[in-house]
Design brief:
The structure is a homodimer of 142-residue chains. In chain A, a hairpin with a 5-residue loop joins β1 (31-32) and β2 (38-39). The first copy, chain A, folds into two domains: 4-72, Multidrug-efflux Transporter Regulator, Chain: A, Domain 2, CATH 1.10.1660; 79-132. A two-stranded antiparallel sheet of chain A has the order 1-2. Helix content of chain A is 60%, strand content 3%. With 142 residues, chain A is mainly alpha-helical. The model of chain A is unreliable at 134-139 (pLDDT under 50). The longest helix of chain A has 34 residues, at 79-112. The first copy, chain A, has helices at residues 4-11, 15-23, 42-56, 61-72, 79-112, 122-128; strands at 31-32, 38-39. Chains A and B meet through α3, α4, α5 and α6 of A and α3, α4, α5 and α6 of B. Chain A binds a DNA duplex (30 and 30 nucleotides) through residues 3-5, 14-17, 19-20, 24, 33-38, 55, 60-61, 140-141.
Amino acid sequence: MLTIGTLAKRTGTKVQTIRYYEQIGLMPEPGRTDGGQRRYGDAELDRLAFIRHSRQLGFPLDAIRELLDLSDAPDRPCHEADEIARRQLKLVEQRMERLKALRAELKRMVKECSGGNAAQCRVLEVLRDHSECLTEHDQIGV
Amino acid sequence: MLTIGTLAKRTGTKVQTIRYYEQIGLMPEPGRTDGGQRRYGDAELDRLAFIRHSRQLGFPLDAIRELLDLSDAPDRPCHEADEIARRQLKLVEQRMERLKALRAELKRMVKECSGGNAAQCRVLEVLRDHSECLTEHDQIGV
DNA sequence: GTTACATCCTCTAGCTACTGTAGGTTCAAG
DNA sequence: CTTGAACCTACAGTAGCTAGAGGATGTAAC
């Protein structure tokens, strides 16, 4: 029987985060001691590890919920999980493209800064004048 | 004299976002009509464009606040702006490294999925078993 | 048996950067 | 003068946690 703190340490999660996952129904309500403290078994440890690993791969909680459902139903076809993973891969690739463009513009900005005062600052100038910008920006979330 | 809607259209911002920027002190309180509607001048248009462009480059609002302060004080030395931009560049590069690792793992997951049912699904298996994971994950934010 | 203290509990609020909605008012054109 | 788009305030909600207050519990040492 594991305390919430042990579970937290073993999976690299904050205690509050585990309670939060319980609250939103991602983790089950565990058994309690007479005094009301949570006690977990190995199944919960595995489940939390699954969640955390998925989070580290950037899956949103909704996707993780779907993946957990699939994982709980071993006879369901696999392509759904595959599709979720592909979707995530696509997202990651999009983000990378976007970051590449940002990096280019930031590099340009920084390189051209000659170190005078704010009036001649290239960094500020580039930010001020969008027309100098080489990259397309349609979305803001990076 | 520009309405808030015009300002929004010209800078690709939502009206609510502009009001939000005003609320947090990033945009100044503009003049009003007798009926209480906001009216802007070109200075505000420029300021908002500056903010938006900075946001598109991923600068957090706090950094933008600093950049705006610098921009308002043309005789202050430029290296502060340079430093903020460098910091941002570094962040972008870190995120890219991280995404690269994620992409590798996601690709591996997806490639190995043979299309059976959930019990044999490699995607789920990889997520379940962190030890198969090649990459280091210390932070979750991508 | 008691004391000390780490860990646990619930509840609430806060973070970033917005976005959406409800219910009502104003502006400009026809 | 009427119509309808655009404006107003105020509040709630989004993702995914994180932090703090104020108090209860569990366990090891004495």
